[in-house]
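Interim report, section 4.2 (structural modelling).
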Amino acid sequence: MRPSSRDLDQMRTISIETNVTRYAEGSCMIKCGETHVLCTASIDDRVPPFLKNSGLGWVTAEYGMLPRATHTRMRREAKNGQSGRTQEIQRLIGRSLRAGIDRVALGERQITVDCDVIQADGGTRCASITGGWVALRLAINALMKAGDVISDPMLDHVAAVSCGIYAGQPVLDLDYPEDSEAGVDGNFVMMGSSRLVEVQMSAEGSTFSRDEMNTLMDLAEKGVGELVAAQKAAVS
Amino acid sequence: MRPSSRDLDQMRTISIETNVTRYAEGSCMIKCGETHVLCTASIDDRVPPFLKNSGLGWVTAEYGMLPRATHTRMRREAKNGQSGRTQEIQRLIGRSLRAGIDRVALGERQITVDCDVIQADGGTRCASITGGWVALRLAINALMKAGDVISDPMLDHVAAVSCGIYAGQPVLDLDYPEDSEAGVDGNFVMMGSSRLVEVQMSAEGSTFSRDEMNTLMDLAEKGVGELVAAQKAAVS
Amino acid sequence: MRPSSRDLDQMRTISIETNVTRYAEGSCMIKCGETHVLCTASIDDRVPPFLKNSGLGWVTAEYGMLPRATHTRMRREAKNGQSGRTQEIQRLIGRSLRAGIDRVALGERQITVDCDVIQADGGTRCASITGGWVALRLAINALMKAGDVISDPMLDHVAAVSCGIYAGQPVLDLDYPEDSEAGVDGNFVMMGSSRLVEVQMSAEGSTFSRDEMNTLMDLAEKGVGELVAAQKAAVS
Amino acid sequence: MRPSSRDLDQMRTISIETNVTRYAEGSCMIKCGETHVLCTASIDDRVPPFLKNSGLGWVTAEYGMLPRATHTRMRREAKNGQSGRTQEIQRLIGRSLRAGIDRVALGERQITVDCDVIQADGGTRCASITGGWVALRLAINALMKAGDVISDPMLDHVAAVSCGIYAGQPVLDLDYPEDSEAGVDGNFVMMGSSRLVEVQMSAEGSTFSRDEMNTLMDLAEKGVGELVAAQKAAVS
Amino acid sequence: MRPSSRDLDQMRTISIETNVTRYAEGSCMIKCGETHVLCTASIDDRVPPFLKNSGLGWVTAEYGMLPRATHTRMRREAKNGQSGRTQEIQRLIGRSLRAGIDRVALGERQITVDCDVIQADGGTRCASITGGWVALRLAINALMKAGDVISDPMLDHVAAVSCGIYAGQPVLDLDYPEDSEAGVDGNFVMMGSSRLVEVQMSAEGSTFSRDEMNTLMDLAEKGVGELVAAQKAAVS
Amino acid sequence: MRPSSRDLDQMRTISIETNVTRYAEGSCMIKCGETHVLCTASIDDRVPPFLKNSGLGWVTAEYGMLPRATHTRMRREAKNGQSGRTQEIQRLIGRSLRAGIDRVALGERQITVDCDVIQADGGTRCASITGGWVALRLAINALMKAGDVISDPMLDHVAAVSCGIYAGQPVLDLDYPEDSEAGVDGNFVMMGSSRLVEVQMSAEGSTFSRDEMNTLMDLAEKGVGELVAAQKAAVS
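Predicted structure of the assembly:
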């Protein structure tokens, strides 16, 4: 019944290749099916002004899409400025990754996680969070190896998956053909412990019940479990 | 225990004054405690390009804050452009209001709902949705009275409330002192029927369990019920 | 003969409600007939760079209109940037208010007067100056009460009114139907003493004689006298 | 007593050289003492959208300053956008020139008058109006010679001069050293007939009486008379 | 003597992988040593306004760098707008690729070549041209295969290489350590036939003789020969 | 054969008038035939941040065109921002002028050379470089006369000329009718010694051989020789 013939609760194939760029302190290419996102983590000794002399660190994120990451070419944001959608997504990624960080242990430095979508087939913000965590983990490993950070500031894994109601059925990990048809869909950001960080459920031209929401959350827990396993394999 | 001495499940005083401006086809001033939002609905015969000759209507929203709606004066967005936060909020308001509309019945016209925060004490996006629905209802009443729209395009009430975990307790309808301290908070947009339209839960420097989430949703259902009653009183 | 049936030298009803917002150090809602402007005065300890360590204070103003303050909805300036008209108006308000201030007595601090038009029916810049003066007066009262300012920096009242030639007759305090038809109109900013601060007379598709100008100035003196009386009543 | 040793009612030397650029339909370099402005008039067959199929013409103006037209180099507006002051000035020039035009006789075309300040020593907006009129006159002469316009759309001369109170004395045609010290100054735009088009009087840190205003207007009439004579000599 | 131990006339290893993205009509990842550029070619049936109904096609290019393509993270252009350097580079790429196209044979359509630098180690604009040609070739192959274009509009190969004077010696294909030290460097765009399309030689804090220039051009011819061979291998 | 009837290797008439504005430390109006550029050099004691406390000076350039410098009026860049072409040109002018400067001898100060095109007939960037050098020379003369700079930081003359292939013939110093038709054209920046600083050759819809390039460089050497002679005459 799904365009991809997947089972309702079946994730797309996940692959996470680490250290894919030469300069970034941490990096990976995450592929969730045909959605490919390059994630890099860059360490900077300066923090934003509101944190100066606070002793606290900061993690922030920026998100972009190459113009031909999509079926039809989009206008380049460097020419037109970031859309509201882009800003919304990068704020979500930043908040999600900060949830997994002890900012005291990180110390007064900033890590910027750049998530650039090379190819898009739905779920780019979730892939960015899951891959962004890996890039962050590797960058912090480098800080710890260099002795710049003593106790590990990473509290737990953070990963994200989308779920939605497609053709009347609850499905896990929507691809683009499903996402563009689903009346209800949501993004679920969770810790390795399954505790929740962000829930964003949204209906366009539709509504949903609390029962449906609970079903979707069950699916999300299953999906995040598989993503966390993939993260573990990638960084070990 | 709450700074305002309210019970955990107690809303702030709600007041909705309608027809507060002279020109808008629908308008109200909604006050949720010390949060005051002026909502106007403006009808335009032209729809956005992607809907031309589709026979479908459109409802969109814009959101703004007066510079001194807050404790300390903010920079005027007209001088600096809309922030990511502003864009995120107005996209949410628009999606939420569209959930309550039959776009075929509305016909090929656009209604723009402007939500301008005169005074802010937390929960401005929720007040904007709840008040925006009233302005929209009044504008559509005018269309129906004029015979421009025959069958009522409004499917149900739409209203929104925030809930969060403050000082370890789940609380309903956060004001600013609570909002700025809460580790977890969320916005719940519901129909009059209690079916869900949007759920946005977010933790900053914290996480939450599914049990906590369910408690917050119970609170939200109670709150939205009271808001819908206030909407009914206002437009009757 | 006037659309509102007013006499040629008759002002619209003036009302000034003070302390209308919770946070601003001074505020009022001024209504000149159907023109409604919310004025707030915000105190900031920092002055613009060109005044650093000068011992002099500064008063500046910003002006905005809600998108549906007018008959037909205007584009939101936060999305498009401030128009030339907006910038011209806020520069005028700032200059006018500074004329009534002893900047040495104010001391090295800045007061920003925000004038936001809630509903527009002509004469918004004049109402902004007259109401802005009230907000400024209240903010300075607060500074004096707190002992931050010792001798009163306010030299005199400042108020403004428009006059013009409508249907061949000189009229006082133009409303929108008159303003949009008048070939000649002007804005007159005066002190409580009737001394002049700004005169801006302008003809679009027309011209005027010095005699006509003198007649308009007589009307303006009368109008400003009534506005100053209303200011006095409001702040007493 | 004046820095330039001029009499109180003495203008700076005026020179207007016509046809100074190769491509513009009308052009002149106007020099009012050390203030030099290059004015060009460009004819375009298209009118702004609000005039389409109205049969009416339009005259508009744009104003700029070369970065080193002034004592110290200013930032280039092409890099930073037009300032509020620039927009205010070009709106004034446009309104002033339109006052001298019969837009029916001009026919449905637009003339853009560009006023670029090559060197600034006070009074640049007045020189722009006076020189802009000459460029406009020459461009319209070309239209008439070509038979594109039958009856002359120019109703009268339009010229402008500044006056102010410097060191306690009313003076005509302020240069920069006077302008930067004057507590009161104004710009007066008049027709050849001495009828008024625009009066903009402004006090910064000062005020003025109606008697003083009348004295300044007497000076302005004298000055505009001399400017109109210079225009006549230039275009004959 | 070269940091990379290459011979003076030795290119970096070239690799061109084709069809690397799913949606673009043509694409490749070109690697010139550690410089990696993703090139996509997107076909659009609409041409820019100045070519409407001309029967002529258009090829244009856009260029970007991921923020962490470089040693230290750069600011994201989507947040700050394209720099002058970026605009200059994309204009060069566009002109270069158009030199190899018969715009009549292409027919009235536009192909946009996006060159996004994934990792930068000098010579990104040259790699963009060389890789951009491959993407363009593949996109045009698709047009021809579909019968949308009958006769091949590609006249010849187009490829580019940089040369410069490093440590007093003429060297081929500068990497970043050389580029940042070279007093003279240039970019040479050539056809497969060795005819020249663009020469951009530039000295910063230095100058060069015609003899030196000729030596560099000899090197460039050698380098472009190797690049054209790599292009041939890639598209065959 | 040339539209202007010049010989293939004949320059347009060159005139350089110095000290044409009152405030700039150095200035000239350069006329190359009908191309007229006003060049000013402005000295600033502050250097850009990357040179603070380096002891090194900086020379930079900005370029602009008056809207009616051209056959048909262009949009004013102050309203629309600088085009890519403008930025490319001003970067070239700056690099070229820096090639003639000993930045140690200049000392830690910045000189900004503004090149504003009053009238354009092809070759505006070359005229800007040649005239910009004169303005720079005069400004540095002033610094030396004032004793602010001891040893002359100017190493040699810098001048520029365009050459191209027009109607199949190599020609020197293209004017606009030639430039708009030429398939190949280039800009050559040289020192007084004939050593090269920049070479920018470009073909649009065409290509060129190395022999053709050598012929154009011979022409350029001849042209620059004449420009340097004109510079010498102007500053002596």
